[in-house]
Amino acid sequence: ALAIPSDALAHGMRVFASAEGRTIRGYAVFTGEIRAANAMIEVFAPDGARLAKTTANANGEFEFQANRAVDHRIVVDTEDG
Questions:
Q1: Quick check: helix, strand or coil at residue 16?
Q2: Please, is 43 exposed, middle or buried when counting C-beta atoms within 10 Å of its C-beta (0-12, 13-18, 19+)?
Q3: Rounded to an integer, what distance in angstroms lies between the CA atom of residue 71 and that of residue 28?
């Protein structure tokens, strides 16, 4: 599984992620390099199935274990709209 960096639409947020083996690590950052601390992270397969759910740390960093060899869509929710 490989997660590709993508731009989010809300509040100029960007999400970066990379895979090493089954471990996918990344971080979420707002424009101005402000990290998305404690954001909710959900990961989905192309068919919409949720693959993982976790919370970013105080630096906006997250990590999860991939359990399927599919493209991953990472959704970050900071409850800011």
A1: strand
A2: buried
A3: 18
Q: Are 46 and 70 in contact (CB under 8 A)?
A: yes
Residue 71 CA to residue 81 CA, distance in Å, equals 26
Tell me which residue of 53, 48, 50, 49 sits closest to 63, measured CA to CA: 53
**Which pTM was predicted?**
0.79
Confidence check: pLDDT of 11 > 90 = no
Q: Which amino acid is at 75?
A: V
DSSP output for 21-73: TTEEEEEEEETTTEE-TT-EEEEE-TTS-EEEEEE--TTSEEEEE--SSS--E
Q: Is 12 helix (H, G, I), strand (E, B) or coil?
A: helix
**CA-CA distance, 38 to 50, in Å (whole number)?**
19
